[in-house]
Amino acid sequence: MNWKICLLLSLAAFSCRALEGWIDNRDLLPAYKPDSEVRMEKRADGRLETPDWIKSLILMEVRIDSASSDGTVKGLIPVLDHLAETGVNGIWLTPPLNGGNGYGNFGIHTVSALLTGEKEPVRQWRVLRKFVDEAHRRNIRVFFDVVTWGVTKHEGGSPLLKQKPEWFGDYYAPYAGWLWKWEDRELNEWFASRLIEWFLMTGVDGFRCDCAPQYSGFEPYRVVKERMRKFGRKVVFIAEWTTSRKNVFDLDQLTFCYKNAKGRRMTHWLGDVYLKENIVDFIRNGNGLRAYDDFDREPGRERYYTYMLSCHDSPRYVVNGSPVAIGYQAIFAPFIPLWYIGEEWNNPPHFFYDYYYKRDKHSAPRKWNLYRNTIDWGAKEKNREFFEQVKKMIRIRRSNPDIFEYFPDDHRQSNICKVTTDQNGLLQAYARYRNGRAVLIVPNSSGESRRFRVTIPFREAGLKEGIAYTVRDLLAEKTVATGKMTGFGVAVAAGALGVFEVVPQ
């Protein structure tokens, strides 16, 4: 069956889901508020920071022409229902601008006729505004993608190259285009004006800024934020590269930064970091949470960090049907989760001949990146059991915002601590805690079912000792222990995640 038909059938079936007992998380999405009602949060040092809605974000990246029923933004509107059902309230769209369906950049003043289905600029703006309005109606925030490294060579190149040659520097082969000269004041003003136009015309909530601040720096976005505040808009910028923020960028997409063997600064594709490293030690030490533009600064000092399971550049899906991979690292960890559409139902990877294989006359197909992967909506129904597990985990996160949406000024002070069990050689169990209660995350990363004896971390989680507690299995929705206790016993299936609430009676 054609995948577009599968999409329509899948989404049309939503009205019958209550009868089938499927989980629907849309009732737990924080209500969309217009900017006039949005509170700007400040750090402890008084520095203005971000809109208060950022703490509730769960982000999903979507490529329009592969996820949409008709390849356009119009056909993507039903996909918003999928996000809402899942419990995702942020959508990052690969570029609907710049003259094509990909990261080709003619200039941010252009809107893609391919992805809007319209050629007239007025109609294009209407399509984008309609999509944003529909997302807001479902309590979903929208982030467009803006290309900041330059303009492309394909299809004869951007007209901007002829109109404003002084704005461009060297040709950059890896991106097949010319880099902006950000030192040019006129370019900076033009760029800022165009972004403001996008904000005002579409009502979009923010931008993910490609290759920023590595190429663009901070100034264009600083200007935009200042001017948007005068318009009453409270917007968010997500930098692709790790950054010191400087009250300009609110989040980093990549988050982790390190030096390789040659001493070069590199960003790390997250994926499965915490399936290999001790998650609590990493967070407490701020390991890897450095800024590309200020590498020697003490790490982990910012408020919000994303945990990116995957994105369009990722060479593969990470989750692969594992509740441990998605729940342990992203949904329950003290980060803002981010992944490419399909992780939540184990969308299958597709193999193809990429450009480099064709060029180098290789014949073996390979997965190149998720940007070119097909979104198989039929697979969503085939993998319904796993999808329901993901929704249940998100529902737990959404039902406990005081614990899971707590973000201190210094990430190293996140409300996470180690949990001791009698099972050695497995992933570190941990607790998220606040206000006298805790949620314990117990992963069974082995290939067999195991029974765990879990010790409650009273002191570390701020729990009172010597009083009666109730322990509930939040995934199975049942009580597993009551009374005065130092710990409890539970069975966790192979490759599964145990999630247990500890509350005073």
CATH superfamily annotation of the largest domain: Glycosidases
Number of domains: 2
Biggest sheet architecture: 8 strands, parallel
Helix content: 25-40%
Span between N and C termini? 53 Å
Give the strand tally: 23
* Main β-sheet, spatial strand arrangement: 11-10-9-5-4-3-15-14
Please compute the radius of gyration using only Cα atoms: 23 Å
- Tell me, briefly, the overall form: globular
**CATH architecture label name of the largest domain:** Alpha-Beta Barrel
The average pLDDT is 89
The low-pLDDT segments are: 355-360
Salient structural properties:
alpha/beta, Immunoglobulin-like, globular, 2 domains, 8-stranded antiparallel beta sheet, 8-stranded parallel beta sheet, 23 strands, TIM Barrel, 505 residues
Question: Could you please describe the fold and organization of this structure?
Answer:
The protein is α/β, with parallel strands linked by helices and 505 residues long. 27% of the residues lie in helices and 22% in strands. The protein has 16 helices and 23 strands. Strands 11-10-9-5-4-3-15-14 form an 8-stranded parallel sheet. Strand 16 and strand 17 form a beta hairpin. Helix 8 crosses helix 9 (219-230) and helix 11 runs parallel beside helix 14. The protein is globular, with a radius of gyration of 23 Å.
